[in-house]
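Pilot study result, target chain (229 residues):
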Amino acid sequence: MKKIISVLLTALLAASVFAVSYKNNTFQKLADEYTKKAEIALDAGQYDDAVEYSKKAEENAALSEAYIRMMMARGEAENNIKLAKNQIAWAEKIDAPNTFPMAYTSAKDNLEKAETSFDDEDFENANAYAKASLAALDGIREVTPLPEFYIVKPWAETKDCYWNISGRPYVYNNPLLWENLYQANKNNMPKPEDPNLIHPGMKMKIPSLTGEYRKGTYDPKKEYETYGK
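Predicted structure:
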């Protein structure tokens, strides 16, 4: 009997090492107290009491481990939620809601789910949603939006016409899409029925074709990404 109880106590003491940095929780304190009582009872030959104290120590040690796991999960979820909030704030600062709308929306949705799960003390799911929020923002970077307008230059300088303008990387990167420019701007032309008659100084609108975000007037000093890539 004494050997069996000693083995039980040894296992309990080993398990308590896992909780060494969380000794202040009530369950661990009770487990330690019952372990000591079991040891004293065992030394005094009070085997029934030793068994009873050992069982109580084991129960509280298990509750302590569960509490520690919960607190660790809580801490990790809390940290990742903070990281996600910071990343979203940075994304908003670089205009990601417009330049990377799908990624930004996904990050916001997952953060909201993470916070809801955290409030419900579902820390495992809270952490998973927070990580998903961070992952959604992983590819976001600061970019110069494609231009929404273009000021037509003299033909001798830039060979500006709908065909050529449409083929430029920052417009549509494809001259065959020129009619989109024509339809969006023909009412501002001297002869709307003639797409060849664009004139220098004309502020040409570049309509979005695929939901791409466009802003401002083309500036040759800026570097733009290629449309469609």
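One observation from the pilot: Confidence is low (pLDDT under 50) at residues 1-5, 7-12, 14-19. A full batch analysis is planned for the follow-on phase.
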